[in-house]
Structure to design on (522 residues):
């Protein structure tokens, strides 16, 4: 039989799980294509309506600032693309304002829906990545589940949030940028002066360079902060893990001084990072506003065309999606390593016996361990040629000292470990190694000295509550591993009476280092 315990010497020679779709952009689009279509639809309506508002607003501002361009009459026209008229209100400014407010409300609604759906989709991707990781973790062979991959799983699981947001937000920002570029490119056809286009392109280029520079500076500051934060964590771990040794060697004052110095360094770096972020963002924000104002003023004075004024105004709106895109590109570099780690984890070998087809549909009456041998390491056998028989209708009690391997036997009964020799036979005809383990696990209720109950109770009270929860489950097999360790005499007597009653109709297995409770012997 194959060994899924630490004795498995062939683990590293096995090939990764096949048919595993790697986490990538292809996976994202293939998995969520329906939701991506909805995201694109909402982003399109939101972006186009917003750009149309900017276009018509710029047209109206230009006509108010340069009334001579109206040729003696004031007309209220809401334009669509280029010079196409969406609605001509003539000189009725009231209807024009009413429609403008309605259009603004619709635009805000779609913008809100777009933001909500984008975050909702990101949350779904995050949850799916976490669920995928957890499911994989429980399918791993025991060697992988206890090795370095356990640490990798923790790191990858914690990075799932950043990875999920990156997939959705980067895709959405990229799409909005290209959509805005397409809109601006179309509007440029109607500009009367090429100087406006060049001014817009130069403005966009300079702002992009500034964005890249400021983003680089902020990244450098964050990197410096991260380094000292890691030193702070190392210092804290050293204090916590070596508490007694530090006190015994009289190093308490020196250790605390070192830690205080580390905290001061972290605070300085944190303040430096906060100042850099505030400074660069403030400068960039005001620079955009001021430069845009003066350039629009120059265009308004020297270029007598509303279309040129509109085109340059639209150019300035490329900065926001470009800013998100640059941040996404920066995150992409370190998230790519997270994605590789996740794909490596998901490709690890899985147990091939969890989803087997054989299912026992008849009542479980007998479990027999025939000449079972098991070892965790070479030349270190836990037990050899062990024979055990557990039957329904009687109390199966295995009393053995600590270190005998009682918990190992439980893991073998669950199929978590497989022995290096021998067989586990159920009802005299089914081999445990050939069963569907998920269905097999559903037949078992289990309790031990440890438990997952998190209440402010004593150890004995917590164990008693865990036993009550276990006995509530309607299962065919009940396994108790040192489950009566922390019970007082009264509760222990009650426990044994319940075990006797339970064993009349079920297969009950009790393992303990203690002898059978005295009142029960009488």
């Amino acid at each position: 039989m194959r060994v899924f315990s630490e004795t498995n010497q062939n683990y590293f020679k096995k090939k990764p799980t096949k048919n595993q779709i790697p986490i990538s952009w292809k996976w994202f689009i293939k998995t969520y294509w329906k939701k991506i279509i909805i995201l694109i639809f909402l982003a399109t309506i939101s972006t186009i309506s917003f750009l149309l508002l900017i276009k018509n607003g710029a047209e109206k501002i230009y006509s108010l600032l340069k009334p001579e361009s109206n040729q003696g009459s004031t007309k209220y026209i809401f334009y669509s693309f280029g010079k196409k008229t969406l609605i001509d209100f003539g000189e009725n400014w009231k209807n024009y304002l009413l429609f403008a407010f309605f259009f603004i409300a619709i635009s805000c609604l779609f913008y809100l829906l777009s933001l909500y759906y984008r975050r909702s989709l990101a949350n779904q991707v995050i949850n799916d990545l976490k669920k995928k990781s957890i499911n994989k973790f429980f399918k791993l062979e025991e060697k992988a589940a206890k090795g370095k991959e356990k640490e990798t799983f923790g790191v990858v699981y914690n990075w799932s949030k950043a990875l999920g947001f990156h997939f959705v937000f980067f895709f959405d920002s990229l799409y909005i940028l290209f959509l805005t570029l397409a809109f601006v490119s179309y509007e440029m056809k109607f500009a009367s002066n090429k100087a406006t286009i060049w001014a817009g392109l130069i403005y966009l280029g300079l702002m992009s360079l500034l964005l890249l520079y400021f983003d680089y500076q902020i990244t450098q500051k964050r990197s410096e902060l991260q380094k000292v934060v890691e030193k702070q964590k190392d210092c804290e771990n050293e204090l916590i893990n070596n508490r007694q040794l530090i006190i015994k060697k009289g190093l308490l004052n020196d250790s605390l001084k070192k830690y205080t110095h580390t905290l001061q360094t972290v605070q300085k770096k944190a303040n430096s990072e906060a100042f850099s972020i505030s400074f660069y963002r403030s400068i960039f924000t005001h620079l955009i506003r001021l430069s845009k104002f003066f350039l629009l003023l120059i265009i308004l004075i020297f270029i007598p065309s509303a279309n040129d004024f509109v085109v340059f105004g639209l150019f300035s709106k490329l900065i926001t999606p470009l800013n998100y895109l640059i941040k996404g590109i920066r995150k992409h570099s370190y998230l790519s390593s997270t994605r590789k780690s996740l794909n490596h984890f998901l490709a690890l070998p899985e147990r091939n016996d969890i989803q087997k087809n054989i299912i026992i549909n008849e009542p479980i009456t007998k479990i027999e361990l025939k000449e079972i041998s098991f070892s965790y390491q070479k030349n270190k056998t836990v037990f050899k040629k062990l024979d055990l028989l557990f039957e329904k209708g009687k109390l199966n009690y295995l009393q053995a000292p600590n270190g005998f391997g009682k918990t190992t036997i439980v893991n073998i009964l669950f199929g978590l470990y497989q022995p290096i020799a021998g067989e586990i036979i159920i009802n005299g005809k089914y081999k445990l190694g050939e069963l569907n383990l998920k269905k097999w696990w559903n037949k078992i209720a289990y309790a031990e000295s440890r438990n997952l109950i998190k209440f402010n109770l004593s150890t004995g009270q917590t164990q008693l509550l865990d036993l009550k929860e276990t006995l509530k489950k309607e299962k065919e097999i009940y396994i108790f591993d040192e489950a009566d360790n922390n019970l007082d005499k009264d509760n222990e007597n009650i426990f044994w009476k319940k075990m006797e009653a339970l064993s009349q109709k079920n297969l009950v297995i009790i393992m303990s280092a203690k002898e059978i409770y005295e009142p029960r012997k009488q």
Notes: The first helix runs from residue 25 to 31. Residues 366-521 form a domain with the Rossmann fold fold (CATH 3.40.50.300).
